[in-house]
Amino acid sequence: MRWGVHHIISSPHYPLSNSHAEASVKAIKHLILKTAPSGNIDCKEFDQGLLELRNTSNFTGRSLAQIVYGCPLRTCVHAHPQSFSKEWQAKSEDCDCRAAACDEQMKL
Fold first, then answer.
1. Cα dist. 10→4, 13, 56, 72, 106 in Å?
2. Rounded distance, CA 28 to CA 50, Å?
3. How far apart are CA 63 and CA 70, in angstroms?
4. How far apart are CA 8 and CA 18, in angstroms?
5. CA of 26: how far to CAs of 23, 35, 47, 65, in Å?
6. What pLDDT, on the 0 to 100 scale, is given for residue 29?
7. Per-residue model confidence as pLDDT tens digits over 52-102
8. How many whole angstroms separate alpha carbon 7 and alpha carbon 36?
9. How confident is residue 104, by pLDDT bands cut at 50, 70 and 90?
């Protein structure tokens, strides 16, 4: 508790207790089956699929790449060049802050 770590024990035979991890495993298995049916994940298609998976926004509206790096990663999916500019990223952050404030007001 001193370091702020809370250990929560969940049953390994009850997958519903860890649904986020189960959903991630399901997504990766689906990606492997689609891009590398032989099981060899050392291919360009798997790498691109993994990149897209990390760039896909989650329930917060932000992708894992945005959470970790602060901006979306460039991928093979076409996007307007200005969508990666600092101005648009600042607008996105402002929109996220307003949404969070609105959620807080709704809770009260």
1. 19, 9, 28, 33, 32
2. 8
3. 10
4. 11
5. 5, 14, 17, 20
6. 92
7. 888 887 777 788 888 888 877 777 777 777 776 778 778 878 888 888 888
8. 36
9. confident
Q: Does the pLDDT of residue 15 top 70, yes or no?
A: no
Q: At a CB cut-off of 8 Å and minimum separation 6, what does 74 contact?
A: 84
Contact 75, 55 (CB under 8 A): yes
Which tokens hold the place of 47?
Answer: 């790498």
- Determine the Cα–Cα distance for residues 60 and 63; give it in Å rounded to an integer: 8
Provide the 10 A C-beta neighbour count for residue 66: 21
Sign of the C-alpha dihedral computed for residues 40, 42, 45 and 46 taken in this order: positive
Sign of the torsion formed by the C-alpha atoms of 34, 39, 45 and 48: positive
CA distances to 37, 39, 89 from 66, rounded to whole Å, are 30, 29, 10
